[in-house]
């Protein structure tokens, strides 16, 4: 798949939220977020208090339109990237909604919607951004954190990139609330 990314004529769409794409990305990718922060400010803010980067999110109702703005020819190759990548070869999990499904991802969900809207050559990258950087040896860029990331050892740098833990001021309320809650719980259990 990494060969297809470098092939001429393919449009590589990063479906992560805009905040994440602005933090770091593969050069040449375009951003069309599959999930966006809730329009309802209270619902979005509740995500900040849970330390969820960008707050709680919902499906972007304009996702297909956003892709069409950058990839007008529905016969051209579209390659979708997100952090995880998903994998159609993994058997889906059934049961509790709390079960983590390693095969599911936003890029797979986005691919389904694009195919339903008439795109004929939609691809995803199993393993996501980690795979194209580690296995495909593609470079990433970061205007916001480039100097910070360059100063870190490779393992720490990749951990921050792949775990989505780059510093974000919107996470501060969540960490404060969680710290207080843990302190209260420790006090009550002492």
Structural key phrases:
190 residues, alpha/beta, Oxidized Rhodanese, domain 1, two-stranded antiparallel sheet
Q: Can you offer a commentary on this structure?
A:
The protein has helices at about 1-5, 20-25, 40-50, 65-70, 105-115, 130-135, 145-150, 155-160, 170-190; strands at about 10-15, 30, 35, 55-60, 80, 120-125. With about 190 residues, it is of the alpha/beta class. Strand 1 (about 10-15), helix 2 (about 20-25) and strand 2 form a beta-alpha-beta unit. The protein has one domain (about 1-190): Oxidized Rhodanese, domain 1 (3-Layer(aba) Sandwich), CATH 3.40.250.10. The longest helix is centred in the C-terminal third of the chain and has 18 residues, at about 170-190. The N and C termini lie far apart (about 55 Å). It has nine helices and six strands, in the order H-E-H-E-E-H-E-H-E-H-E-H-H-H-H. A four-stranded parallel sheet has the order 2-1-5-6, with helices on one face. Strands 3-4 form a two-stranded antiparallel ribbon. The protein is about 40% helix and about 10% strand.
Which CATH-level-2 architecture? 3-Layer(aba) Sandwich
Full CATH superfamily name:
Rhodanese-like domain
Largest sheet: 4 strands, parallel
Q: Which class best fits the helix and strand makeup?
A: alpha/beta
Give me the side-by-side strand order of the main sheet. Answer: 2-1-5-6
| The CATH class | Alpha Beta
> Could you name the ranges where pLDDT drops below 50 across 5 or more consecutive residues?
none
| Rg for CA atoms | 18 Å
Shape: globular
Mean pLDDT: 82
Whole-number tally of structural domains: 1
Oligomer: single chain
